[in-house]
Amino acid sequence: MPETYAEETQYFRQDWLWALLLVGSAPTYLLVLVVVVDDAGGLGPDIYPTLAGITLLVWGPLVVFYRAKLVTEVREDGLYLQLWPLHLSPRRVPCEAIDDHRPVTFSPMGDYGGIGIRHNPTVYRWGVSFDGPKAYIAAGGEGVRIDRVDARPLVVGSQRPHEMHAALQRVCP
């Protein structure tokens, strides 16, 4: 396995994000519980599997999202990105495909419309084009912009962008 020069793991732990998720999930859960219990004629042993299924459907995705993470590694043969659970194996950007790289500051909401894997849309007269940089953002507004040889630029969010840039400088000068 190639040597790793920089590694970073970021989680989606923003307070505003979890407030939105909980504010949306809790009332839905309570409403569905009330409707199901009312339709069943009250609580009883025969309704417990249904309640367990509803609980799993509403709260299960939140557990998965809580465990979601962006893993970024700079290895001797390039940059590796994995946004779990969307990527089961890391995506590789080889050094040969990297033209230039530099630390950047950006606004996740203003520039990319949120967090996660984002495509920077350009609105023009006849519609929307997604020819801007592709971004992997888990937290914060700092990262490294990677200009690629035959592909769109890539912005990788990082809590330590200068460390990642220095590692890329060493591996992919």
Task: Please provide a written account of the structure.
It is a single chain. This protein is of the alpha+beta class. Helices cover 36% and strands 34% of the residues. It has helices at 15-40, 48-67, 108-112, 161-171; strands at 4-11, 69-75, 78-84, 91-94, 98-105, 116-119, 122-124, 127-129, 134-137, 142-148, 154-157. A five-stranded mixed beta sheet has the order 5-10-11-9-6, covered by helices on one side. A hairpin with a 2-residue loop joins strand 7 (122-124) and strand 8. Helix 1 (15-40) packs antiparallel against helix 2. The relative contact order is 0.17.
What is the overall number of helices? 4
Strand line-up of the largest beta sheet: 5-10-11-9-6
**Largest pleated sheet:** 5 strands, mixed
Task: Spell out the helices and strands N to C.
Answer: EHHEEEEHEEEEEEH
